[in-house]
Amino acid sequence: MERRALIIGGGIGGLTAAIALRRARWRVTVRERDKGLPITGTALGMWPVALRALDAIGVGDMVRRAGRRQQAGVFLRPDGSRIATIDVERLHRRTGDHVYLLSRPGLLAILHETAMEAGVELRTGDPVDDATEVGDVDLVVVADGVFSQAREKVFGPAYRARFSGSTAWRGVVEDMPTDMFVEVWGRGLKFGVTPQEGGRTNWYASAAAPEGQFRPGEEVAELRGMFGRWAPPVHTVLDAINESAVLRHDVYVTPPLPSFTRGTVAFLGDAAHAMTPDLGRGACEAIIDAVALASHLRKTLTVEQALHEYDRQRRPATQRLARIAGLAARMTHLRYAIPVRDQLLRASMVAGPPGT
After folding, report:
1. What range(s) does the FAD-binding domain occupy (predicted)?
2. Is 151 contained in some domain?
3. Which of 6, 34, 182, 281 is the most exposed place for a label (fewest CB within 10 A)?
């Protein structure tokens, strides 16, 4: 008998789970709150470990072709002097692959098309607030993001997303191609530039700030006030942006969940382990969660046993990454002991990125 799964959320994690479950011969319905795919969004780094997961569902090469391969990477000070270099070739030697940069809309388009071709039923504009009351299905996958209402229903208000203490800006500059990842660390401030497909440059910035301090119409002026004197590529990017191209959002994280499952309900991605973006791994971990979940469902006799194995594999790994991301966020927001901070960053480059 064909087993049935309902996936709450049609983002990266939800669509990846849908494809993976269809390949395992599940009947899959995805219910997404929004009415369509996003048409704007900045670049996501697809690390080798996530690309291997995408390979397992047949879309890895599509992502590599659509994205931009990161050719080099460097961490700088605001005056342009170098703190540390990312050894891109060392990563390739260790993993056999590279990091590829692809916009969120570009990745979602690939996953959406693949899911439709696989026979997934996708219902947009159809939210689900209570994962425990969804009708007669064998499995519920909760992939509805950092502000997951389903998570709060299952685990209670103590597991509501919490403000991290920082805010982030991001955007895209057209006709400014780059192959290099550059991240500039100042006193309590960070600004980054990465490649993006289509000859565009993706940029982002972060700072410690109170919650909800948005200034519509004044964000470019605020960014230039904080970063405008920094060396290229920072001031080069800031000179090229306008107000309509700036997105700003406060950064929220989830408290560590006691389990990624409850009964026949499984949580993945930001619904399970939203972390600060300092490692650039949020989308990657959602993909890995989804493929791991489907893999365990293939191997075990019961859904409950598969979910137990999924929780045992993925919860320690992602919660460790969330702790490392939180530590990285605190490092970038330091205003004192900058030489010590820079030394720690150089040491982390020698150790290599976690879970590549």
Report:
1. 5-323
2. yes
3. 34
